[in-house]
Design goal:
This protein has a single domain, classed as PCu(A)C copper chaperone (Immunoglobulin-like), CATH 2.60.40.1890. It is about 5% helix and about 40% strand. The chain is built from two helices and eleven strands, in the order ααβββββββββββ. A hairpin with a 5-residue loop joins strand 10 (about 150-155) and strand 11 (about 160-170). Bound molecules: copper (II) ion. Copper (II) ion binds near residues 13, 112 and 134.
Length: about 180
């Protein structure tokens, strides 16, 4: 389920190693009884193009890296719908390659792991931020210029999709524009 990346790739992505211990690392698992009632529909994991009702994405930004280094997208997902949702992928016409990743730091070394999906319980919020979950963005169609925006479409399987407009920020940025 996870693929180990060269540590050099993590470094190339400009991940602030010194900040790694700020990573919250909490993973909420919708443990309430109400959520469990919806858990077993046996539905296939297809991606539907309809808007995912009640799912909100805020504060999206992209850390633009120079040359051909991979950039990363960050955002916060809030699940205001009536059922748990799972982010299963990200699509963008602006990038040739998009992946869900998580940065893990062990013994001072950061590495990136592939993530199949990220579940968000009802009323839950999941942050994608430096040193944690991120959208790995490669092969930009056009040069990323600070101050511009790009669209990332977050895919929540059958629940639908949410398109987010994301601010392009410099490599030194640590969070969304206020
Ligand atoms: Cu990554």
């Amino acid at each position: 389920m996870t693929i180990r990346f060269l540590a050099g790739l993590a470094l190339a992505a400009g991940l602030p190693l010194a900040q790694a211990h700020h990573a919250p690392g909490h993973e909420t698992t919708g443990g309430d009884a109400a959520a469990g009632a919806h858990a077993h529909h046996g539905a296939p994991t297809t991606v539907t193009d309809k808007p995912a009702t009640g799912v909100h994405v805020k504060g999206c930004w992209i850390r633009a890296m120079p040359e051909n280094l991979p950039s990363a997208g960050y955002f916060t997902i809030h699940n205001g719908s009536q059922a748990p949702v799972a982010l299963t992928g990200i699509a963008s016409e602006d990038f040739g390659s998009t992946m869900l990743h998580r940065t893990e730091t062990r013994d001072g070394t950061a590495r990136m792991l592939h993530v199949d999906k990220v579940e968000i319980p009802v009323d839950g919020e999941q942050e994608f931020a430096p040193s944690g979950y991120h959208a790995m963005l490669e092969k930009p169609r056009a040069k990323l210029t600070v101050g511009e925006t790009r669209i990332l479409t977050l895919q929540f399987g059958e629940a639908g999709t949410v398109a987010a407009r994301c601010d392009i920020q410099p490599p030194s940025a640590l969070g969304p524009k206020s």
